[in-house]
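Bug report (template v2)

What were you trying to do?
Predict the complex of my protein with adenosine-5'-triphosphate.

What happened?
Run completed; filing so the output is reviewed.

Input:
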Amino acid sequence: TQRTFVLLKPDAVKRGLVGQILARFESKGLQIVALEQRTIDAAQADAHYAEHVERDFYPPLRDFVTSGPLVAVVLEGDEAIEVVRALNGATDGRKAAPGTIRGDYSLSNRENLVHGSDSPESAEREIALWFPAL
Ligand code: ATP
């Protein structure tokens, strides 16, 4: 079994999609290990997106993820990292396949509702950053 870190970004909260998105993860068989709604500051955004801080798309991404409450989640299950990324779909909601979270609910490259860790190393780093008590 494996743990992964998931964010339901501020667009998910604003649009009232938290329950529907969590239902997809739960229905798939993933267990919720931790879950908390938070509003983060720029420093937390920079720490989470450390690998993107220098990218052109980052300043508006930082504004977006600090714009309102988000929901931070740790999920556990067999191959949870890959399974969550498959459920999330491609980064750009306009290109993500129907049936995925982004493919069904997002029409944006930035406001794409969810984040999921992309490797075991990222999952470990992100879980420690967001839920240091775990
Ligand atoms: P995540 O890491 O959030 O699961 P991802 O791995 O599919 O998404 P990354 O390439 O790591 O995508 O980018 C992180 C986030 O930055 C994306 O989810 C999206 O919100 C934003 N982003 C990425 N590329 C762009 C872009 N070209 N324009 C605007 N926003 C972008």
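What did the reviewer find?
The mean pLDDT is 98. The helical segments are 10-14, 18-28, 42-48, 58-65, 80-88, 101-105, 120-130.
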